[in-house]
From TrEMBL, chains A, B:
PROSITE patterns: HTH_MARR_2. It comes from Micromonospora solifontis. This is MarR family transcriptional regulator. Residues 11-147 form the HTH marR-type domain. It comes from the Bacteria. It holds the Pfam family MarR_2.
Length: 161, 161
DNA sequence: GCAAGTTGGTTGACATGTCATCGACCGTAG
DNA sequence: CTACGGTCGATGACATGTCAACCAACTTGC
């Protein structure tokens, strides 16, 4: 057990700031989204990903991978969204095991109604508070971290080790 | 309903990167923490806040405010941690309604055992991947966003409006 | 000193996420 | 063709977080 390199003052400030921002931003965006559109953030993400897809439909596993969700979580969540009439499940023609999620008209309507307000909130509480340089830096830095982590994560999807 | 200002390419890159990083970093840090120390991130945060306090103890409401948790969440979580012997509840001498959480020896031992590995993981997956300029920028930007959000959040604690 | 309103914390019901497991189906080696 | 191992998605049990209701104790105005 060697004495670790603790975070120095600037590092600590960045780390604590990140975690605090994370929490507050999440709370606020979720709050506005529920209030204005009756959707949770996970709902929004599912609908958003589906609506950006050419045919408004995706294989479950494909959607799960894009969202970095477990298949189980997605399955549970889709069941709830299906109850509310936002999405439907269809059989997958290409693979008898699989299924396909599709946006319903109500789902499409929900995301179209929610999107402008949500983007505005993201601007108001984050993007518009940053300088162009900061936006650039944030893009660069997050993508570097993601690339670093993504390898492990994908690898871990297959087997533990 | 006016057409909103959608995110441009750089803004979108920053926003998506942030959310992806958020998710992956969280998964990885939580995974290592559980594996190496048998603690969840919320456990770690509670123990960490308590251990940084002079007397190793805090009023529930004080701790909840620091962590940006609801009182209810904290109460539930402390019950679970109490079960595991990491903390205890004590009566508050100054206010008969209140109570005080205190670190147990086991709790102190747990956080001391967990901290070096956790800090190392934070370095490995985030801090050490950034340039000094980026760390500086991240600190500045997150604190600006937090300040912007903190007002609303505190205000909302009292009354809805 | 007491009635009314506020605050601190707990609780129970419920929503959500995780983990382990399962059945069905796929692909491939024999 | 068939047996085998791996993948797809669903499910049930459980951990965690949220929300609303609650009790008890504090505070304030009279």
């Amino acid at each position: 057990m060697e004495e670790p390199r603790w975070l120095d003052e600037r590092e600590d400030r960045a780390w604590r700031g990140y975690r605090r921002m994370r929490r507050l931003l999440d709370l606020e965006l979720a709050r506005e989204l529920t209030q204005d559109a009756g959707l949770s953030e996970p709902d929004y993400d599912v609908l958003s990903d589906l609506s950006e897809t050419p045919d408004q439909r995706l294989r479950l596993s494909e959607l799960a991978d894009r969202m970095l969700w477990s298949r189980s979580r997605l399955s549970h969540h889709l069941s709830r969204m299906q109850q509310r009439g936002l999405v439907t499940r269809e059989e997958c023609p290409a693979d008898g095991r699989g299924s396909v999620v599709a946006l319903t008209p109500a789902g499409r309507q929900a995301i179209e109604a929610a999107a402008p307000g949500h983007v505005a909130a993201v601007r108001r509480h984050l993007i518009d508070l940053l300088t162009p340089e900061e936006i650039e830096a944030l893009g660069a830095l997050t993508h570097r971290v993601v690339d670093h982590l993504a390898g492990d994560h994908r690898r871990r999807g297959r087997a533990e080790g």
